[in-house]
Specification:
CATH topology: Phosphatase 2c, domain 1
Low-confidence stretches: none
CATH class: Alpha Beta
Largest sheet: 6 strands, antiparallel
Structural class: alpha+beta
Helix content: 25-40%
Radius of gyration: 17 Å
Order of helices and strands: EEEEEHHEEEEHHEEHHHE
CATH architecture: 4-Layer Sandwich
Strand content: 25-35%
Number of domains: 1
Length: 253
């Protein structure tokens, strides 16, 4: 399968540094944009160092650097890989008080040598699938407001305005509990649907760009890279105060 990958990671218009990182074709990127044309197996991911936590930037860098070492294939157990990275982060943080409790989100999409996919989510970065003009959110946010919503203690409208909407309850490296690691597939085989594209975003994007806006950007009559760039620029134009990262993965059998 021919797979086009395009990604952007940027500190944004407000913050002085970028705590986001992206992984594309075995390389970790700290800033800027990159494009790659690859074949399976491949793995792409976004990490967002948890805002306000000492060492968030280092956690994101560490997590994706470790993930980049994995030679992904059909025998790889990504959940075990993430638990191992989590434990290594805890160990690294124990040697330096400045980096105590350094943690990060992780959202990843992997294709093995048989073109079978595997998705991973920890935290509140998001994974979407766009196909046939429709964007579908595949991941579930590990946030306090999502938990309260699932428990029937908060409405969807209250989730949007709650001061706790960015409080995450699972992360890689958090020392309060073992992270919740969602590992799942996507239904129809990747690359078989019209305009089949996986989109991975940090919350600097998704706090300002919803599913409908993703559909509009992906429906533009422009090259693939410009569609992904449009998602990034829309979030920036709407006043995102966070770091911004987005990866698009397009496959065609």
């Amino acid at each position: 399968m021919h797979i086009s990958i395009y990604g952007i990671t940027d500190k944004g218009a407000v913050l002085e540094s970028n705590e986001d990182r992206i992984l594309i074709d075995g390389r970790v990127y700290r800033e800027g944009e990159t494009a790659a044309l690859v074949t399976e197996p491949t793995l792409a991911a976004v990490c967002d160092g948890v805002g306000g936590e000492t060492g968030g930037e280092m956690a994101a860098e560490f997590c994706l650097s470790e993930l980049a070492k994995v030679r992904y294939n059909s025998l790889t157990d990504l959940k075990s890989v993430i638990i191992d990275i989590h434990n290594k982060l805890l160990e690294a943080a124990s040697f330096d008080e400045r980096y105590r409790n350094m943690q990060t989100t992780l959202c990843a999409f992997a294709l093995d040598e048989k073109c079978n996919c595997c998705c991973v989510n920890v935290g509140d970065s998001r994974l979407y699938r766009y196909a046939g003009g429709v964007a579908t959110q595949l991941s579930t946010d590990h946030t306090l407001v999502r938990y309260l919503y699932d428990m029937g203690e908060m409405t969807a409208e209250e989730m949007k305005t709650s001061p706790d909407r960015n409080v995450i309850i699972s992360s890689v490296g958090g020392d309060e509990q073992i992270p919740r690691i969602d590992v799942f597939t996507i239904g129809e085989k990747f690359g078989t649907l019209p305009d089949d594209t996986i989109i991975i975003c940090s919350d600097g994007i998704t706090d300002h760009v919803g599913r409908t806006e993703i559909e509009v950007c992906m429906g533009l009559d422009v090259p693939f890279e410009d569609k992904i760039d449009a998602i990034y620029r829309l979030a920036l134009s709407r006043g995102s105060c966070d770091n911004l990262s987005v990866i698009g993965i397009a496959g065609e059998a």
